[in-house]
Design goal:
Largest sheet: 6 strands, mixed
Shape: globular
CATH architecture: Alpha-Beta Complex
Protein name: Blr5178 protein
Order of helices and strands: HEHEHEEEEHHEHE
Radius of gyration: 18 Å
Organism: Bradyrhizobium diazoefficiens (strain JCM 10833 / BCRC 13528 / IAM 13628 / NBRC 14792 / USDA 110)
Number of domains: 1
Strand content: 15-25%
CATH class: Alpha Beta
Number of helices: 6
Keywords: Signal
Length: 144
């Protein structure tokens, strides 16, 4: 086993590859618990890895915009971000808006994203989508 690890490390060193050189590609992420994404993206921020948004990134996935410097994020023509109010399961399992979590989530986003959200009525139970020219005006396009 030690030999195997040594060979992998030697291969990485000789090719000049580092973990931070590999980009994280987001293609189909529908979100989930906010805490999970904050933790995941804090580790990603510390790693130095760039992020390519190349598909659907919804709900808590969009926290990537708050956690990763914009200089390390690029978007493709396929990128779509979906925003809505945070919610919890209420009585009988029905979704109930969590106002505190929604305010926290909104405050985390970069100013340009917050302004775009505000111009569309804020974070509500209704989902709003950021893609195309408006998204590319905020984030650089990925080079092929």
């Amino acid at each position: 086993m030690r030999c195997w690890v040594g060979l992998v490390i030697a291969a990485l060193l000789t090719t000049g590859s580092r973990a931070s050189d590999a980009a994280l590609r987001i293609t189909e992420d529908r979100g989930g618990p906010i805490e999970k994404y904050i933790s995941r993206y804090e580790r990603l921020r510390a790693s130095g890895q760039p992020v390519i948004i190349d598909g659907f990134c919804a709900s808590a996935c969009t926290i990537v915009l708050a956690a990763i410097p914009s200089s390390r994020i690029c978007v493709t023509s396929q990128a779509t971000l979906a925003f809505h109010a945070a919610w919890d399961f209420g009585h009988r399992g029905r979704p109930v808006t969590n106002s505190g979590a929604t305010r926290m989530l909104y405050s985390m986003y970069p100013v340009r994203v917050r302004q775009w959200i505000a111009d569309r009525g804020g974070l509500t139970p209704r989902t709003i989508f950021l893609h195309g020219k408006p998204l590319k005006a905020m984030y650089r396009s990925c080079s092929s």
